[in-house]
Amino acid sequence: MRRATVYRYSLPMEAGVVLRNQRLKTRDGLLVSLWQDDKTGWGEIAPLPGFSQEDLPQAQEAVQHALSQWMQGASLAALASAFSTLPSVAFGLSCADAELRDELPQVLSTRCAPLCHGDPNELYARLGGLPADAHGRKVAKVKVGLYESVGDGLNVSMLLEALPDLHLRLDANRSWSPVKAEGFARHVPPELRSRITFIEEPCLTREQSRDFARLTGIAIAWDESVREAGFTVQAEPGVAAIIIKPTLTGSLMRCRQLIAQAHAAGLEAVISSSIESSLGLTQLARIAQWLTPDAVPGLDTLDLMQAQLVRRWPDSPLPLTDVSALEIVWQSQ
Ligand SMILES: O=C(O)CCC(=O)C1=CC=C[C@@H](O)[C@@H]1C(=O)O
Ligand SMILES: [Mg+2]
Q1: Residue 178 class from Cβ within 10 Å (0-12 exposed, 13-18 middle, 19+ buried)?
Q2: Distance (Å) from CA 225 to ligand 2 centroid
Q3: Pair 62, 140 in one domain
Q4: End-to-end CA gap in the chain
Q5: Pocket around ligand 1: residues whose beta carbon is below 6 Å from it?
Q6: Where does the source fall among the domains of life (predicted)?
Q7: Atom 3 (ligand 1): residue with closest C-alpha?
Q8: 223 marked as binding residue
Q9: Position 179 in a domain
Q10: Are residues 255 and 318 in the same domain?
Q11: Do residue 323 and residue 238 come from a single domain?
Q12: What is the total count of domains within the chain?
């Protein structure tokens, strides 16, 4: 006996959340709740505007079609894997299936790399509680590329000089030309560069990013590249990690494949948020603890929202939106 319900949510965002030059006023998505033989499984399906190819109506139509087939006995894992062009659907359905089959461990670690906005006092206050990665590095993340790259270089140097224990992940989201990237590096003294664990996607093209790593000795990581057709995980000079955003990537099986390829190539695999709700973030934290226990995940995005959803993130003071408050958009007969 099987039952399935699809809920739609819309969570208010904090003011000023901008993604790819788009203001995100609400985070909208779907939750699927499955029931079979006295077991339940939940999944979150939340295409990220500006990053996902699919939009929420497309995702909702695909989920309803898949669950109709599941109700007739189809395998959910097989259905999830079939949605390679709708990664958010593949990931959410595969999580619900993994929970239903007790495959997704319950162990949840809240350690994650704080997303900081450049104020050393804010970061200083959090440094003591910063998680250390497998190399004992206290890791935080700073977004760069929003303003002048020279200013980014000066700001990053100031943070690293002020906090000798700190290691930084940076993320330029491909915003730098080679000249701007050089302008950044010129203002980071060589002795500080090793405390930049990596810069995600510094330049517009992968070749320019490889050149940046070679010329500056600053390690890079692939994020957006991982999701591009034809990308292959491989060891390359200057490349330290791949960033895996499951909601943008695909099913749990696809993510496990990428993680295994990264580890085989000697790369770090970092599970990263696509600004999911607290339910999705707790599942990502469980996945990170399970599959990438030596890498601090990048999940510090809950505070971009004004509420939690169904499942709490431990110790978050944000109000919880209960499932009873959600709109049911589809239900099995
Ligand atoms: O990876 C993290 O530490 C948090 C998530 C994060 O930085 C991002 C999520 C989604 C889009 C971007 O804003 C950004 C990224 O590009 O990695
Ligand atoms: Mg990134």
Answers
A1: middle
A2: 10
A3: no
A4: 12
A5: 19, 51, 113, 115, 141, 171, 173, 200, 223, 272-275, 298, 300-301
A6: Bacteria
A7: 298
A8: yes
A9: yes
A10: no
A11: no
A12: 2
- Per-chain residues with Cβ under 5 A from ion ligand 2: 171, 200, 223
The enclosing domain of 216 has a CATH number of: 3.20.20.120
- Parallel, antiparallel, or unpaired: how do β-strands 2-12 and 26-36 relate? antiparallel
Amino acid identity, position 92: G
Q: Are residues 44 and 153 located together in one domain of the fold? A: no
99: domain range?
2-104+314-331
Return the pLDDT at 84: 81
Return the exposure string of 3-39: e unless at least 16 CB atoms fall within 10 Å of the residue's CB, then b: ebbbbbbebebeeebebeeeebeebebbbbbbebeee
ipTM of the complex: 0.99
- Locate tokens 């510094």: which residue? 202
Q: Which of 239, 144, 223, 124 is nearest to 185 (CA)?
A: 144
pLDDT tens readout for residues 169-205? 999 999 999 999 999 999 999 999 999 999 999 999 9
Angle of helix 178-186 relative to helix 149-162, nearest 10 degrees? 30
Amino acid identity for residue 4 in this structure: A
Give the pLDDT confidence of 295-331 residue by residue, as tens digits. 999 999 999 999 999 999 999 999 999 999 999 999 9
Report which of residues 132 and 159 the model is more confident about.
159
Q: Does some domain include residue 74?
A: yes
For residues 298 and 149, state if they share a domain. yes
| Ligand lying closest to the C-alpha of residue 20 | 1
Ligand 1 atom nearest the C-alpha of 301 is 4
Q: How far is the CA of 244 from the centre of ligand 2 (A)?
A: 9
Q: Of the bound ligands, which one is closest to the alpha carbon of residue 198?
A: 2
How many other C-beta atoms are found inside a 10 Å radius of the C-beta of residue 204? 16
Facing residues of 3 across strands? 35
Residue 291 domain flag: yes
Q: What angle do CA 5, 11, 14 make, to 5 degrees?
A: 165
Q: Are residues 227 and 268 in the same domain?
A: yes
- Is residue 254 situated within a structural domain? yes
